[in-house]
């Protein structure tokens, strides 16, 4: 049984709110923020008018998005500029607080883009923390398998 667009969108926004709340207390606020943004984008595509019909949900999303912004920016400091994080989270919140207009698609794109940038920052950070064992193994294997060039001058 499939749900109608309004029901699907409401559930996605409720899940996004739960992720935002988790980001308020999580050791790393970035991962729940990514999940929340993904849910908001999907909800906005499913039912662009959700904010008009659910002003309470829209207000909670906006409040929480702005509350977590400093924690998310801190979590990716050095990888993503804080103003970029704030802008992307604001775009995500505006998917519900602004009426759908000619900028609705741009809000979706900016919210999706910051989610992707945050995801990339988390992956890069984790690979660096782990010293990128796969990358190092592939590099070592390629070096081992490379043909020897015996015509290289040693002087």
Short description:
By secondary structure, the protein is mainly alpha-helical. 76% of the residues lie in helices and 0% in strands.
Describe the model.
This protein is elongated. The longest helix has 26 residues, at 104-129. Helix content is 76%, strand content 0%. It has helices at residues 5-25, 30-46, 50-53, 55-75, 82-97, 104-129, 133-145. It has one domain (5-144). It starts with a helix and ends in a 10-residue tail after the last helix. It is an all-alpha fold.
- Record field, number of beta strands: 0
Rg of Cα set: 21 Å
Content-based structural category: mainly alpha
For the sheet with most strands, the description reads:
none
When the domains are counted, the total is 1
Order of helices and strands: HHHHHHH
How many helical elements?
A: 7
Share of residues in helices: over 70%
Low confidence ranges: none
Beta-strand percentage range: under 5%
What gross morphology would you assign? elongated
Q: Kindly report the average pLDDT value.
A: 94
Beginning-to-end CA distance, first to last residue: 75 Å
Question: What topology emerges from the helices and strands here?
Answer:
Elements: H1 5-25, H2 30-46, H3 50-53, H4 55-75, H5 82-97, H6 104-129, H7 133-145
Helix pairs in contact: 1-2, 1-4, 2-5, 2-6, 4-5, 5-6
